[in-house]
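Example record for the data management plan.
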Amino acid sequence: MKRILILALLTVFATAAFASADPGYGKSKSKETTTTASETKSTKDGNAHQAGKPVTLTGEVLDLYCYMQHPETSTGAEHAKCAKSCMTKGLPVGYLVNGKVYTIIGKDHQPVNAMVADYVGTKSTITGRVIDHHGVHAIELATISAAAAKPEKGTKQANAKPDAEAKMYTCSMHPEVHADKAGTCPKCGMDLIPMAAKEKGEDEEKDE
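Corresponding structural encoding:
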């Protein structure tokens, strides 16, 4: 009985000694687990910083102050003069793409207002890297240029069909001769014929 009591007392003293020497005894594992769970939750919530995706976007440069105050009248050529004035004052600029707005920022803290001011009120194309952080969308500007104009409906250019492949010519006697325009064969002097016509003739001969 005495031996059992002595062993019990020794166990109590040993546990107390470890706890005194290490204040975090019995807690470190729980703390580590909590931190890991917190990091996982942050990732699932989409709060992690995502950057570096290169893109090419076509849209319209915005004066963000006016866009937030009166979005219905803050775009287009009619608002260009006011937008340029606001940008000259250093107010923030954005980029509107299919209803989604990006804040335009410069690389390494470079100011961008002067770079984009001439493109307000018109369609433009910019390249850069998209940055999404805590629900805020931004694009780190690399280049900006005027967007290619689309032909108006009903015009000859708009109704034009895609060009067919360039017509090539050859010699019926020397098929290794190819030319991109009509002429004569440099080997025999015969008139060159369109390659399509030559192939059609060969097919007819095969059918016979």
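Summary line stored alongside the record: The first strand starts at residue 50 and ends at 63.
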